Amino acid sequence: CGVFGVNGVAEAANFVALGLHALQHRGQEAGGIVAFDPDKGFNSAHRFGYVRDNFTKASLMETLPGELAIGHVRYSTAGAKGPAIRDIQPFFGEFAMGGCAIAHNGNITNALALRRELIERGSIFQSGSDSECIIHLMARSIQRNIPERMKDALRRVEGAFSVIAMTRTKLIGVRDPLGVRPLVLGRLGEGAYALASETCALDIIGAEFVREIEPGEMVVISKGKVETSRPFGPSTGRFCIFEHVYFSRPDSIIGGRSVYETRSQIGVELAREAPVEADLVCPVPDSGTPAAIGYARESGIPFGMGIIRNQYMGRTFIEPTEQIRNMGVRLKLNVNRALVRGKRVVLVDDSVVRGTTSRKIKDMILDAGAAEVHFRIASPPTAWPCFYGVDTPDRDKLLAAHMTPDEMREWIGVDSLAFVSLDGLYRAVGEAKGRDARAPQYCDACFSGDYPVAPFDQLERGFRM
Ligand code: 5GP
Ligand code: SF4
Ligand code: MG
């Protein structure tokens, strides 16, 4: 998911709509905005579909007045049984000291246990979302102000959370102690601040990037001032390495470096680890493109767009049902026959999950007359599900969970298949030595099975690490 908030500007909801539009790649199912105005109070709108189709209409935006607003774009992960309007964030709660809206990116790993406990004690849940726990935990806190209640609530929550919240006067941002999901701070001129999942959302509104919110940090922004605190004690971060590989936008800056640069560096590592004699390096667009550029640069093999993407389709993986996802590949990608005919093609993609995309693309390339297809993947085999907010399927649906790379090569039907190593990936993101096995610097659980937070709900449901 993607979150965005802004404080101290006229028509704040319009800024939020723009910010969410820039974060649309993080969630395409639905979006919501809450705004506060001293005369009109809290107002909200929750809609299915793209931000641009809902939140640019003047009639809707006029219902969201005020200088303080937050928003959320959603794609469903944990526990979701298909889209429901009541699951769309931000969620809102009215407390003795006033209202509060929250927007959450990530996934709470003890949400089922918390929900059970809260329901037993009288909470009335409105949605099926794990994030709603936060509001109910806040309602039960005895603290006298909302930031302190949030701290109380979030100390009980496990897993991944980057949360943006707002009261009548404050904009609040928090990252979980490991900082699994991103969150950044921007400035929009005198006394106006923005919080966003990624820097690309600051660019779109012309805000200056100030810094990343640190793992385990809370910032409270009001009257043009940013106050910081560390509600969870000291911690070292385990940022999601897959944000670098796929999830973030290539024009965003993470850890002081553009995601695009990191991705092309993954391609460089891949070319060093898995060279091959070929005529053309060709990305699976768009997610494989920067890595393919790096592979081509390092190998000296010419780069070409052998597959063309229809720009009017969304990300196929994110469509929730299997059937839509299957159709998606052909609706979205087509082979540039004139370019690939007769060539030995190195096909570069960011990841193999179920393997269905890879198989279809290989068919399309061979149908178009390619002589050979060598598949190169800019991440290690995805053998474990993510429980921290990226929607990987159950373990039994992950190709790498039950096949060796060689069996995968055979099943996909390509001449060769290679994945970048976990060490190579770490080197590409800037860890000179590769992965430090005793103290990994990132979350890499979907590749290693090393879960930095025990997935409590999943273990209770029978998942075995
Ligand atoms: P599959 O192997 O399941 O057919 O699809 C892999 C493709 O899905 C990759 O090209 C990748 O770009 C895309 N993808 C979209 N969303 C996700 C996601 O959340 N996780 C992973 N691993 N890949 C995703
Ligand atoms: Fe990111 Fe993978 Fe960890 Fe999930 S399991 S947070 S996708 S690195
Ligand atoms: Mg892709």
Please explain how this structure is put together.
The radius of gyration is 22 Å and the shape is globular. Helix 9 (259-273) crosses helix 10 (289-299). The model has no long low-confidence stretch (mean pLDDT 94). Helix content is 31%, strand content 25%. The two termini are 25 Å apart. The strands form 6 sheets. A 7-stranded antiparallel beta sheet has the order 3-2-4-1-10-9-11. It has 465 residues and is α+β, with helices and mostly antiparallel strands. Iron/sulfur cluster binds next to helix 8 and helix 17.
List keywords for this structure.
seven-stranded antiparallel beta sheet, 465 residues, binds guanosine-5'-monophosphate, binds magnesium ion, alpha+beta, six-stranded antiparallel beta sheet, binds iron/sulfur cluster, 18 helices
The helix fraction, in percent, is: 25-40%
What distance separates the N and C termini?
25 Å
Lateral strand order in the biggest sheet: 3-2-4-1-10-9-11
* Bound small-molecule species: guanosine-5'-monophosphate, iron/sulfur cluster, magnesium ion
Shape call? globular
Mean pLDDT: 94
Low-pLDDT residue spans: none
What's the gyration radius in Å? 22 Å
- Total strand count, please? 23
Continuous helix count: 18
For the sheet with most strands, the description reads: 7 strands, antiparallel
Portion of residues in beta strands equals 15-25%
Structural category is: alpha+beta
